[in-house]
Amino acid sequence: MRYGRWMIFWAFAVLGVGPALSGECQIERAPAVPVIIKDLRALVATKINGRTARFVIDTGAFWSMLSPQARSEYGLPDGGGPMGLWVSGFNGSTSAYVTSVRKFTFLGVPFHDAQFVVGGNDFPSGAVGLLGGRILQLADVEFDFGDGQMRFVVAKHCGRTPLAYWAHDESFGAVKLHRISARHPFLIGHAMLDGRRIRVLFDTGSPRSMLALDAARRVGLTPHTRGVKIAGGLAGVAKGWLHSWVVPVALFQIGDEKIEHTRVLLSDFSLSGLRVDMVLGADFFLSHRILIDNRHHVLYFTYNGGPVFDLGHRYLIERHGAAAVEAGPGAQGMQSAGPAQAGKATVRPASASRSMRRGMALAAEGQYQGALSDLDRACALDPHNAEYRFRRGRIYWAAGQPARALKDLDAAIRAQPSLYEARLSRARVLLSWADAPADGRRVALADINIASLMVPDASVQRLQVANLYARIGRYSDALRAINLWIYFHREDALLPMGWNVRCWIRAEGDVQLHRALRDCQRAIHRLPSPAAALGNRGLVYLRLGELHRAISSYDAALAVRPKLAVALYGRGVAELHSRQEAAGRADLAAAQKLDPGVPRLFAHMHLRP
Asked: Hey, how many other C-beta atoms are within 10 angstroms of the C-beta on 108?
């Protein structure tokens, strides 16, 4: 996308400047750009031809990008730019083309005929694309994701004075970056891992920090190291998937900051031409306040508090479910150099919107108590704001408080009936909560029906619609929803997930079973961690009465994930029907111990032992 440096100065002139002085050094700060943290992605609001569009702030991207689904949704031209254009990510490369936006608005400034690269996969978390590294060179830039904001700054008469103006008497860290330029906008520096120097990329577009497999081997870490756990598959801009693991690390050091006895994500990624050993992602940015001095190629940071690499028990539960995870050491024992550990968590934001954004940042780190405190403040300051009630309701649900979640979601929908995300969340609560109101299923079905009319056809939320219809027993509606999603993602890396969901819907509903089998087979061959698809195939065979094949498929699923309760229970049912009484009873008991709700699921499908 083409921008000039004048954009930032226009934003300063139009929006005002807050000076921060240190001797003769003057740091002019533009007003904060609000940042919403969702699923560990930093989202900023823009407009495409007058329509709201959220982008991921991505310091690791060379180009600003749109997904093909977003280009279609916003009615943008479908071709242009140089022939043979390719974009690369950590999971490979993919072809791309250029589109133009008649009027793109960012920082309140309109840009006409702004160009974006179109390619890759659909972006999650409600984002339509990426705002890449080149736009972030227009001035020095400060990232304060923990407080739900970022801003551009201009240093005057500062020379090489450190620009961490907020640190005052606190200690701060500094990392010398490789030379930043229009041709090389990437933020690359060095850190230490278990005593060895490594090359790191600061990348807000990666939700979690990742260690490359080759770099891990140099310090004696492999997927077979004691204490390593499988984390599943990772998707990026290309169609392929990568395997990932959670590995223990004795010491990670950047600047003077030390993080001891932690866990990091390990993956076999490769970033073409950058020779990067590790990516420091949005989780690192959330736990630090960071300023990039583009002129002198230095990154300044202070520690905010909270986890840096949060890959302990809670992360594995999110990936695999509570029943599939063995208790073990989490991301504990983190230490930060000097007073930087004090952070700023005790400062209460003044405005409702800032309180909401900081609450979302805390929730992204799993700090639900602090998140709810900030959302309580936001709701108190603006009690009729539907978005605040919706977001607090989501956090209540994540924190295991369904009654309060339902109360907030009810209030959000009353305030804004068109907020379909709140309707989908309320339906999920009503269908999952054992103590839901008596009319819960009726209300849930109404919510799903209304949301289905509002959700964009290509949106990932169409998958949620499909799953919710299946849970309520409306299998034909579920199949229509998943078929629509698959149509728009037929060239997407997430397509195997769609096949797997469709296989489950057909198997659960006992419909089109041979088509379900084909979907499962395709998903098994394309997913990097196929345990769920293998389990779904076992269910299909169970429906078909092919008990030996059902048991074999469940065996394969449990070889990948030994504590997958639904596979254990399904195998137990198949074994009992095959007159393997002892094995069947043992599997049923083990499944119920892992997940007491699994017998209800099979009873719902009329599959009883």
From this structure: 12
Does the pLDDT of residue 463 top 80, yes or no?
A: yes
DSSP H/E element including 444? helix 440-454
Which stretches of 5-84 are DSSP H helices? 6-15, 68-73
d(CA 412, CA 390): 5
Residues 85, 110: one domain?
yes
Does residue 199 fall inside a structural domain?
yes
What global pTM score does this model have? 0.82
Q: Where are the beta strands (DSSP E) in 268-346?
A: 278-280, 288-293, 298-303
**218 pLDDT more than 50:** yes
Residue 37 near residue 362, CB atoms below 8 Å:
no
Q: Considering the domain boundaries, does residue 241 fall inside one?
A: yes
pLDDT tens, residue by residue, 74-111: 999 887 666 667 777 766 677 788 899 999 998 888 88
Among 342, 363, 388, the domain boundary falls at: 342
Q: Looking at the domain assignment, is residue 425 inside a domain? A: no
Q: Bridge-partner residues for 92, per DSSP?
A: 89
Task: Tell me the residue range of the domain where 138 lies.
Answer: 6-156
3-state SS, residue 21: strand
* Domain count along the chain: 3
Report how far residue 161's alpha carbon sits from residue 21's, in angstroms, rounded to the nearest whole number.
11
